Amino acid sequence: MNKIGLIYNPRLDTSLPLAQDIASWLAQRGVDAWICSTHERPDDPQCISNTDLLVTLGGDGTILRAMPLAVPLEIPVLGLNLGRVGFLTECAPERWERVLERILAGQGEIEERTMLQVTLCRDEEMVIRDLALNDAVVNRHGLARTVRLATSVDGALAAQYIADGLIIATATGSTAYSYAVGGPILPPWLDNFVVVPVAAHLTLDRPLVLDGEAVVEVEVHTTIPGMLSVDGRPTGDLHEGDCVTVERSRFKARFLRLRSRNDFYRTLVERLSPRNHVDVSR
Fold this sequence. Notes:
Layout: E1 3-8, H1 15-27, E2 32-37, H2 45-49, E3 53-58, H3 60-70, E4 77-81, H4 96-104, E5 109-122, E6 125-132, E7 135-140, E8 147-153, E9 156-163, E10 165-170, H5 177-180, E11 193-198, E12 208-210, E13 215-221, E14 226-230, E15 233-238, E16 243-257, H6 263-276
Parallel strand pairs: 1-2, 1-3, 3-4
Antiparallel strand pairs: 5-6, 5-16, 7-10, 7-14, 8-9, 8-13, 10-11, 11-12, 13-16, 14-15
């Protein structure tokens, strides 16, 4: 590898000093490095296009913020977990030197993850198009009122949800917001995605697991504006009659992995336990 980008979360005090330490370590081994925060972009666009790897310093949210840089250029991402759970990250921060030594020695494999293309149309004109690694969420906006969401799968009406919102998540995102409201956990390398209502009222309240080729259309019916969010980012207001289409993207997220797939199952409970304060060592 000739050039590595280091993207840090400025909300974590340890992230920038760690990024600077890693950059110095890489320079000693003849590898160029650039540093920027999740709230910035590198000053020189050319440095991004020539980058061989992005290393993120933070949690899963830091990786999600790095994806718009990485995905179009097919740059693989490796996450150092400074966050609380870190389903998307590869290793703990104290192991970074050992991990990078292995990567510079040519070890590791690329793991691809499905992404979603999310399109918002109003009066039959496209308003927004975005990419999601975790999920797209159609929900109410502030006031405690439900929204009506006519949801079709491959052109057939599947449900008329009356709910606080609706989550369409990838297998990768099945351990995020979808999981928090009772959705199933899918192995992250699957192409499937899930549709999960949030606080459904007098309507279908069970998640749907869909084939990766499925196309989901959500027609919004609301007297007050709703909100579309993509990977946790507020993306746009939703109005009466708006249609959100979610389908598999042609783009893939690429992660550099040193561990085997089986580690997902071995660490599943351990990574969820901080939220539940469960001692899994017993």
